[in-house]
Amino acid sequence: MRRTVFNEDHEAFRETLRAFIEAEVVPVYDEWFAEGIVPREFYYKLAELGLFGINVPEEYGGAGLETHKFEAVQYEETARAGVTFGGSGVHVLLALPYIKMLATEEQKRRYLPKFVSGEEMWAIAMTEPGTGSDLAGMKTTAKLSEDGTHYVLNGAKTFITGGVHADRVIVCARTSPPTAEDRRHGISLFAVDTKSEGYTVGRKLDKLGLRTSDTAELSFVDVKVPVEDLLGEENQGFYYLGKNLPSERWGIAYGAYAQAKAAIRFTKQYVQERTVFGKPVAHFQNTKFELAACQAEVDAAEAVADRALEALDAGELTPAEAASAKLFCTEVAHRVIDRCLQLHGGYGYMNEYPIARLYADNRVNRIYGGTSEIMKTIIAKDMGL
Ligand SMILES: Cc1cc2nc3c(=O)[nH]c(=O)nc-3n(C[C@H](O)[C@H](O)[C@H](O)COP(=O)(O)OP(=O)(O)OC[C@H]3O[C@@H](n4cnc5c(N)ncnc54)[C@H](O)[C@@H]3O)c2cc1C
Questions:
Q1: CA of 177 to the centre of ligand 1 (A)
Q2: How far apart are CA 9 and CA 365, in angstroms?
Q3: Which of 19, 50, 172, 201 is the most exposed place for a label (fewest CB within 10 A)?
Q4: 15 alpha-carbon distance from chain centroid
Q5: CATH 1.10.540.10 region(s) of the chain?
């Protein structure tokens, strides 16, 4: 089916990005994979390419656009090449919407130019060892000092993408206890400088997939956060999270669809080259049927992902629609990548083959940003159930 989401500018960007990935990422990707992290300097290259400033207003050094289409191209092109850009995805997809929505003029002038140049990489810390799906149960606290100049932050976060390299992290913390009527009341957001005293990056976590993304534990012991780094209003954090989760979920949906599409590309090539019983694997009817079924699923996921992209750009993507797109695209990707791996035989289980890495990388899409089960609860609630 003809796609209508991308214009000439997006296609020109795609060409530039494809060449960049070939030159700057593919040759060193095995090293990054073995190290389990992308070098910090690489983020300056992404900044030079303009990736961090696309949606930042011009007065703060960005391109002044309001669109997620360039991010969509990035998801397709990284998946196509079987690589990732480490933990940098959260910088633009997750953190930027909060800065744009909540930061005061003074904060924007302080944060955004360094955001665009890659001098300050951002991450977001919601999840805690004791609470993930049930965010209202978070225990990290931020107490206003008596002189009213700063908050004192105490607690711990886990699974924080970009947590090792981050220079500033949006930390969700309790500034007031929950009320009897509303467990979600009392959470606030802070743009915490990771160089602050008492802020510690713990283990870089050893993951099944997404090996190049730095996922970390963080701990806060009496960290002084200046009141100037409170984002938005005190105690309104849960409401802000609710506003921004649809764009995060769209990003995961789009990334998953792009991985499934890439899986078919790798597999089509593999089954034509690999010979068994004197014939290419592609010769068997089972191979053709499997890939045809996968293609039909990816076509449907592409339509959903593209439509969600248009809705997001128009400011119309509802929480339930985002949940539905995430649920569908990530479940399709799970099925498709598994079937594609099967067609590789034992080689599909080897990390030197991109399908193996895609399989491991894709698994988390049904978990982070809210699990598939949580997506179902959101959709069911929207259905009035
Ligand atoms: C690689 C990776 C990167 C991540 N990056 C970040 C990040 O940058 N920032 C951040 O804040 N967090 C991040 N996370 C955390 C992620 O969002 C959470 O892991 C996720 O929300 C699930 O929370 P949990 O792990 O505590 O699982 P739990 O909440 O303990 O869930 C366990 C199981 O219970 C199910 N369950 C929970 N509630 C319900 C319910 N109401 N009905 C039915 N079933 C339910 C879940 O679906 C799941 O199957 C990351 C996680 C991973 C693995």
A1: 23
A2: 29
A3: 19
A4: 22
A5: 8-117
